[in-house]
């Protein structure tokens, strides 16, 4: 138990970490994020973590999210695990995840119940078709925005296209696609990172 | 744990290890297991549940909750959600401690940079496949396109407005 207040790692920029985020704050913070997250939770998570509560700096957010997106599993749930465990250890992780999920879980079941009661009605089916179309639009718009945020697009765009074709056109198994393409793109990225570091003036600019 | 719950747990726990790029990227795979392989529901129900999940707040992964609920009631919902979230949560809890120590290491930057473009490709694939399985016609395609344009033009607009608009257009028979 006493170990959960982990000491700051030597040399780490641990002064950026606010000293106290209680379990209650984690729960309510992530509850609010979960319940406001219509059509994707991530933007709300960023607003709460970085802008409102300042539990993470913008750079920390990108770094932690990078890990959460790299590893499988629901990204925002992973994010809740990381942030929760950073401040309150294992218990913090559990509380943050529960906060993120419990409210939406109840809402989604309620809607499911309504669907099972009224889902046969033509009007409901028509409505759901309309919502599906918007849902597809939301996903594709997210894709466009992520594409816009890609660094050094020209180099990495082929990997985006290959992933799309492998899954959507060729319908290849996801594991194979990820292992092969992630290895290839990471090797490309590694060489570029090394080259950039070699040519960079020490303490250089950006 | 009864047979069907155990099956739900095993399937979704297995899928959780494959869910690179979030739940949306995993939908084609979930569809394959739930509809084509296990025959737990038909195509129309799957698409409807996806739409219902879209209309609810919360992480996209909760579409799995609805699928579990459709298959085995509230117990199915709980089991599916836990199966989807728990295994990777435990893994990431242990990895996170080490990950922060390597912040800025070249291989870490490389992995982060390298995986990003793939996630984007998976998200596009997911949207495309859901659109196909929803059987959207010309009207549906127009709504999809309009949604994309509105999202990009007004990024601050709350998605709930778009979802309500989609419901309305559906009622009017546009889609």
From TrEMBL, chain A:
Pfam entry (one): Chromate_transp
Keyword Membrane tagged: yes
Protein keywords: Cell membrane, Membrane, Transmembrane, Transmembrane helix
Annotated GO CC locations: plasma membrane
Protein known as: Chromate transporter subunit B
Transmembrane regions: 23-44, 93-118, 130-150, 156-189
Family (UniProt): Belongs to the chromate ion transporter (CHR) (TC 2.A.51) family.
Localisation: Cell membrane
Record membrane topology: Multi-pass membrane protein
TrEMBL record, chain B:
Nucleotide-binding is among the record's keywords: no
Molecular function via GO: chromate transmembrane transporter activity
Localization (cell): Cell membrane
Pfam families reported in the protein's UniProt record: Chromate_transp
Membrane topology note: Multi-pass membrane protein
Main location (coarse class): membrane
Cellular compartments per GO CC: plasma membrane
Keywords for the protein's UniProt record, in alphabetical order: Cell membrane, Membrane, Transmembrane, Transmembrane helix
Parts of the chain that traverse the membrane: 49-67, 74-96, 122-150, 157-174
Assigned protein family: Belongs to the chromate ion transporter (CHR) (TC 2.A.51) family.
PANTHER family noted in UniProt: CHROMATE TRANSPORT PROTEIN-RELATED (PTHR43663), CHROMATE TRANSPORTER (PTHR43663:SF1)
Name listed for the protein in its UniProt record: Chromate transporter
Native organism: Oryzomicrobium terrae
